[in-house]
Specification:
The chain is an alpha+beta fold. 28% of the residues lie in helices and 26% in strands. Bound molecules: ligand K1U and zinc ion. Zinc ion (ZN) binds next to helix 2.
Length: 172
C-alpha cells in the first residue's frame, strides 16, 4: 500500500468527471487500499479517487470516531437512487481544500447503491454524517468540490488560502 499525494484546488484535475469501472478487480482493490492509507495519513474520513488523480468512480470512507473500531467502507460506481426532501446542514471540510470549513446544505437522507470491495452490490439508505460524506465524495466524481456551493467571494478566498499555504510549504 502506498500513500499518494492529494491534489488541492485549483488543480484542474479535480474538475474532471470520473468514469465508472467495469468490474471490481484486484487492480481496483489495490487502488482502494492506497486510497484508504492516503485518507488515514491525511487524516480524513473520506476520499474520492480523483483526489489522487485517478478519474474512476471509486470512494473510500471510515466514519469511526477516534478510539473506536475502524468502520471502513469501499464504494465502486455509487449511484443515488432516491433523495429525501428534508435538508440538513453540516460544516464540511475537504482534503483537497485543507483548513477550510464551511456549512453546506444537502438532502438529509439518500438511497445509495454501489459495489463493495468484493464487487457485491449493496443498496441502503444513508443518513447523518454518512449521507453528508457520500454526497460530498460523489460530488468529487462529478468534478464538484464543496466550495462550489459557496458565494464567489468565499470560494475565491478559500482557493487563495490553499495556494498561499502550498507556496509556504513548497517555496514554489
Ligand atoms: O476530502 C474529502 O473528500 C474528505 C473529507 C470528507 C468530508 C468531511 C466532512 C464533511 C463531508 C466530507 C474529509 O475527511 S475532511 C477532514 C475531516 O473531516 C476529518 C479529519 C480528521 C478527523 C475527523 C474529520
Ligand atoms: Zn472533498
Amino acid at each position: 500500500m502506498t500513500i499518494r499525494p492529494i491534489l488541492t484546488v485549483p488543480d484542474p484535475v479535480l474538475k474532471q468527471v470520473s468514469k465508472p469501472i467495469e468490474n471490481v478487480t484486484d487492480e481496483t482493490r489495490a487502488l482502494m487500499d492506497d486510497m484508504l492509507e492516503t485518507m488515514y495519513a491525511a487524516p480524513g474520513i473520506g476520499l474520492a479517487a480523483i483526489q489522487i488523480g485517478v478519474p474512476l468512480n471509486v470512494i473510500v470512507m471510515d466514519l469511526a470516531r477516534e478510539g473506536d473500531q475502524p468502520n471502513v467502507k469501499y464504494f465502486a460506481n455509487p449511484e443515488i437512487l432516491e433523495t429525501a426532501e428534508d435538508l440538513s446542514t453540516y460544516e464540511e471540510g475537504c482534503l483537497s481544500i485543507p483548513d477550510v470549513f464551511e456549512s453546506v446544505e444537502r438532502p438529509e437522507k439518500v438511497k445509495l447503491t454501489y459495489l463493495d470491495y468484493d464487487g457485491k452490490r449493496v443498496t441502503e439508505w444513508c443518513e447523518g454524517l454518512y449521507s453528508t460524506c457520500i454526497q460530498h465524495e460523489m460530488d468529487h466524481l462529478k468534478g464538484v468540490v464543496f466550495i462550489d456551493y459557496l458565494s464567489r467571494l468565499k470560494r475565491d478566498r478559500a482557493v487563495k488560502k490553499v495556494q498561499k499555504s502550498n507556496k509556504l510549504k513548497t517555496g514554489i
